[in-house]
Amino acid sequence: MEDPKTSNKKLEGKVAIITGGASGIGEATVHLFVDHGVRAIVIADIQDEKGEKLAASIGHRCACTYVHCDVTKEQDVESLVQSTIQQYGRLHIMFCNAGIMSKSLQTILEFDLPSYEKLFAINVGGVAASIKHAGRAMVKANTKGSIICTASIAASIGSDKHTDYVMSKNTVLALMRCAGTQLGPYGIRVNCVSPGPVATPLLCEVLGVGAEDAESSFANMFMLKNNGVMKVKHVADAVLFLASEESQFITGHNLVVDGGFQRHEGPK
Question: Which family does it belong to (predicted)?
Answer without folding.
Answer: Belongs to the short-chain dehydrogenases/reductases (SDR) family.
